[in-house]
Amino acid sequence: MKPGIPKGTRDFSSTEVAKRNYIFNTIKHSFENFGFQPIETPSFENSSTLMGKYGEEGDRLIFKILNSGDYLKKVDENLLADKDSQKVTSKISEKALRYDLTVPFARYVVQHQNEITFPFKRYQIQPVWRADRPQKGRFREFYQCDADVVGSTSLWQEVEFVQLYDTVFSKLGLKGTTIKINNRKILSGIAEVIGASDKLIDFTVALDKLDKIGKDGVVKEMLEKGISAEAIEKVDPLFNFSGSNQDKLASLEAMLQGSEEGLQGVADLRTVVNNVESLGLDSASLELDVTLARGLNYYTGAIYEVAAPEGVKMGSIGGGGRYDDLTGIFGLKDVSGVGISFGLDRIYLVMEELGLFEAVELPKPKVLFLNFEESESLDKVKAIKTLRQNNIKSEMYPDVASSNNQQKKQWKYATNREIEFVVTTVENGTLVVKNMSTGEQTTCSLDELINKVQ
Amino acid sequence: MKPGIPKGTRDFSSTEVAKRNYIFNTIKHSFENFGFQPIETPSFENSSTLMGKYGEEGDRLIFKILNSGDYLKKVDENLLADKDSQKVTSKISEKALRYDLTVPFARYVVQHQNEITFPFKRYQIQPVWRADRPQKGRFREFYQCDADVVGSTSLWQEVEFVQLYDTVFSKLGLKGTTIKINNRKILSGIAEVIGASDKLIDFTVALDKLDKIGKDGVVKEMLEKGISAEAIEKVDPLFNFSGSNQDKLASLEAMLQGSEEGLQGVADLRTVVNNVESLGLDSASLELDVTLARGLNYYTGAIYEVAAPEGVKMGSIGGGGRYDDLTGIFGLKDVSGVGISFGLDRIYLVMEELGLFEAVELPKPKVLFLNFEESESLDKVKAIKTLRQNNIKSEMYPDVASSNNQQKKQWKYATNREIEFVVTTVENGTLVVKNMSTGEQTTCSLDELINKVQ
């Protein structure tokens, strides 16, 4: 039977690793350029650190690690006889795999608060694990790439994250992304104006369908959800919410006059929008999107989401926001955090679709030395040593060919690995080199080969 | 209560991440320079892939992942009542965390054999997990850095690994390492000569104590283990096993005349030693060590181990060898593999001890803009945008200082993060810059600052 891997997990070939590293390195470079510092946390945490932080559904999706040794020994017989899996879990498992990077980060900040200089700009690029039902584009093991700042409530930080998204996507060649922005305070203001904060989710869900079902359809759905006609009337401008970000801000300001919090949200967003406009973006556009409500119960200020360039069918390729009490769950109160995340797997798929990986250097030798004559091998390996010292990836086919068939195998190896230069013989310092893309065969010295390749 | 992490795991600060990445990147660069290709495998494998591959002790040390959902439902009541942890494990856990990179690699090769061009030179740098008792320098989560070749029996490959060790350690500045080499065939030859292959481990263990307990002590121990005086006499040269590698090879050749396999081992080692001598090493030395027997039941040809430079107390910082039937466990017979591994954590400790991290660029901004006047902030952020476009890491302190105390906090931030250049004000294109190491304060244009920093 052919061996396999658990569902929802992946092997990555060297080409895939190279492409993924290209994305990671671009993100990392920009993170550091913007003053963010890397940290790393363990793959598994104490269960008590993770459980209860992601809701009931989240708790279920956390991978638990079985205790080592005779883990059943101390478990109560009756509990086992009941076969209550949930109750037994806490008796036989003390550790669990990381579910995201935010909760471990909050734990890190509290644990190391005396070593950290605040505001603390950290980034973290590590895998997370979720026992989700695997499906296209959703995996049980995947990387998150997060940048967060804790210990600052400055709106400049919110401006900076827009710049950071723009910088990374521009560097990746992913032009024409839309950075959507909203503010939780505006959503709270709308809730105040429509007179029911518990209806806010119904409201935004309905409003989000405007493109598809039109104003009449949206109003009908809102009425069905118990939002009054009078309340809907008050936020009527939202049904015709187009124009520039400035137009939208003016419209929101007029609409939210009754809500202090809502007006603060408008002021905050205006600061961010104005400063981003003054600074300019390289290839992204910033769009105020009042339907944006990701993780509503979590974010308290700015909310971000990034849409792929138009024409590419893909959900959001990034998102984030501000949470005013990030570390409170671990006992450190009133530390505000704001951060964004890059969706590696989706960015990968979009870049593949748009053919943006062509510039990526694949991890293969530039020069292959064939190995037909044992007597030449040492000279070849000496030449390879020099090539490598000049940072030219190179290798000799390790086994000497003792038959025609074996020689063919070596040529096939060169073709399969798409190697550019193949050296057939080395004699008295003269190399016979075949350029595999042109088919041209030349003789040259090692120095000449180095120049040719560089 | 202060939050913590599971025993045997670690948080890494940004300084530690930077130093670790310096080692990883040096290793990676050399791996690719030598023609090795990266692959990555999932953090967890099907238990059937891992169990039974590392012996009974290994099986116990593998971290098992609890099945999701109502995992007890289908487990037999009697089995639970028996509380036989080991038997229950296979019913409630299907997946397990990677224990090393070799078995997943073997699984990968067999699973993807039709996509792979052989010989396949792969490298893999990923964490592994072991439920070992944590102690100084031994962790439950740690990285392995492996390079292996499968599908070639060439001794050139064994030469290349010596070169690879030498290159990596030289590049890291870790000069004076000793690359110890042996060959399983020589050990088999010794077993043949002493007339008992089942005594080989006793024999090498005793011989390894030569430095400490002298010849008489070693002979005494061997006799106690049931090795005959006559047999010991036959391998007498091993008790005086010094001199050059060539001397040792000559001595072994004389001693192993009675064993065909032993003589083959001498011939193999001689080829490797001669070629390494012809090629030269940058900073390491190669030493034939006949007591080297790591993973005796595993390796079938070359055996490697690297010792840190003299004077540094540390176990081996790398090791490896050839295993003739790497993929047989997954049904693909007769594929030889040879590979080496770098011990990241020990290399890190040695480099720290020798002060070799001084050249590592820490992930911190080069330039910090203080934020004392809201009216200057936009100009500062514009300047920062230009600095970043010039690849100069920079940032503005995000919150504006509205008191003397808050200004002091910003200066303290600059000091704590060891920032080189601090910009206090920006007015009409003129920057006031303080060089934090000299204390010198100057006014200059942005272009002049860029030149200064670069």
From TrEMBL, chains A, B:
- From which residue to which does any coiled coil extend? none
This chain belongs to which protein, by name? Histidine--tRNA ligase
InterPro entries referenced in this protein's UniProt entry, alphabetically = aa-tRNA-synth_II, aa-tRNA-synth_II/BPL/LPL, Anticodon-bd, Anticodon-bd_dom_sf, His-tRNA-ligase, HisRS-like_core, HisRS/HisZ
In its UniProt record, which GO terms are filed under biological process?
Answer: histidyl-tRNA aminoacylation
Record's GO cellular component terms = cytoplasm
> Which family does this protein fall into?
Belongs to the class-II aminoacyl-tRNA synthetase family.
Domain annotation Aminoacyl-transfer RNA synthetases class-II family profile: ranges: 1-363
Look up the domain of life of the source: Bacteria
Q: Which Pfam families match?
A: HGTP_anticodon, tRNA-synt_His
The principal location of this protein is cytoplasm
Give the UniProt keywords, A-Z. Aminoacyl-tRNA synthetase, ATP-binding, Cytoplasm, Ligase, Nucleotide-binding, Protein biosynthesis
Q: Which locations, inside or outside the cell, does it occupy?
A: Cytoplasm
Catalysis: reaction(s): tRNA(His) + L-histidine + ATP = L-histidyl-tRNA(His) + AMP + diphosphate + H(+)
The record's listing under PANTHER family reads:
HISTIDINE--TRNA LIGASE (PTHR11476:SF7), HISTIDYL-TRNA SYNTHETASE (PTHR11476)
**Binding residues annotated for L-histidine, in chain numbering:** 100-102, 130, 144, 148, 294, 298-299
**EC assignment:** 6.1.1.21
